[in-house]
Amino acid sequence: MSAPDTLAHRSLASVWHPCTQMKRHEAEPPVAIARAQGPWLHGTDGRRYLDGISSWWVNLFGHGHPHIQAALADQLARLDHVMLAGFTHAPVVELSERLAALTGLGHAFYGSDGASATEIALKMSAHYWRNQGQSAKNRFVGLAGGYHGETVGALAVTDIPLFREAYGPLVRLAGTVPSPDARAAQPGESARETPRDVALRAAAALEAWLAEHHATTAALILEPLVQCAAGMAMHDAEYLRQARALCDSYNVHLVADEIAVGFGRTGTMFAHQQAGIRPDFLCLSKGLTGGTLALSAVLTTDTVYAAFYDDDVARGFLHSHSYTGNPLACRAALATLELFEQTDALARNTVLAQAIDTACAPLAAHPRVRHARRQGMIWAWDVDTPLPDFARRYHRHAMARGLLLRPIGRTLYAMPPYVLDDEAVQHLATNALAALDATLAEEATTPAPTEERLP
Ligand SMILES: *Cc1c(COP(=O)(O)O)cnc(C)c1O
Fold first, then answer.
1. CB 183 within 8 A of CB 192
2. Residues contacting ligand 1 via CB (< 6 Å)
3. Predicted structure pTM score
4. Where are residues bearing N6-(pyridoxal phosphate)lysine located in the sequence (predicted)?
5. Count of domains forming the chain
6. Domain residue limits at 138
7. Residue 455 domain-assigned?
8. Which of 16, 25, 69, 119 is deepest in the core (most CB within 10 A)?
9. Lowest model confidence (mean pLDDT) among 21-25, 102-106, 275-279, 421-425
């Protein structure tokens, strides 16, 4: 046991850490990080950790990328910030133009984090219907296990009981329809259901729901292809095509929350593109700035935009955050988009993903692993273990081996930055497997507290 890290102890006295029961830190203080480079985090104690989950899914091209750093330094010398109401600047204009070119959604509204993007999309959708004289369409529907952020408005569509329970009275709950999670495939008489069969079954349930509730429903919100916080629940793209068609026929908006799955995580720049569809609203954040600064954006269609364009102030979208369209964050986003082009990132990722698949084959074949799966640059393995606190134990064993992985419940997953070299790939694969065996070795010896599922 090393000497108490003063930074960690001062942190416990002064900082309220997110998504954490603080008492847990009595036994295990937070890890103090001094610096980071590429996929590696370097502790104040001199140890290094491979960032296997991209620091909560935000980092794309590694930490401290020189191209993003140079862009930020240049921007800081020119313009740090100016309010975006009544003013504009080159970074926000260029970023909006580039996002429109990438998505076909020509109007970008900015926020500072993912949950605010969710709220912007929900408010815009309901306000759109109100401006159309259909103010009864003001409710929402989401997928079972969906996660769209934790502010009071976003919790309405976040179907994760642990996050919502204490705040039930504050939340105007949305409807929930079954998830198209491919793991729900049922064994049939001659063959098991395919992921597409599961998608069609979930779409039928969505149709039944919309048939009953469309008159009061503004929008369906979903995470295309991978429901990350649910435990990397992956589904067939057919569900997105069906959902798009159903939203069209029932006059309901489709909100694609690509806060986690955008920017190449699922193999394509945006996940919904694999279904060949276009959402009415697209929420982006996390990887948008390459993991450097807090920024979110909601992109929408000409049709939505036009419904707000009027002589009447109250028909406008009167929403703002102080840092809306911050020039530094927009420059970081522009530099990140440039890196996609300069490094041909999507093509390189297909090669990197093969290498990680090969290195992780023993993990996928582990006798206690179920549903080994991958979508683009997201890997997940469900672990068959009676340990309710598997996640916490695994995290500890992985950190002891210089690897940051943080399972959700009994689902172990990796969502690494796009810049792993051979050594980092081997480090990930070898230590992920070793940490699994070390965790499972504790099964016999310890009593089980209650289950925890935290991202
Ligand atoms: C992380 C996440 C959010 C919330 O973003 P914050 O920046 O944490 O508020 C919303 N939706 C999805 C799909 C996410 O993964």
1. no
2. 113-115, 118, 147-149, 223, 228-229, 257, 259-260, 285
3. 0.97
4. 286
5. 2
6. 66-343
7. no
8. 119
9. 21-25
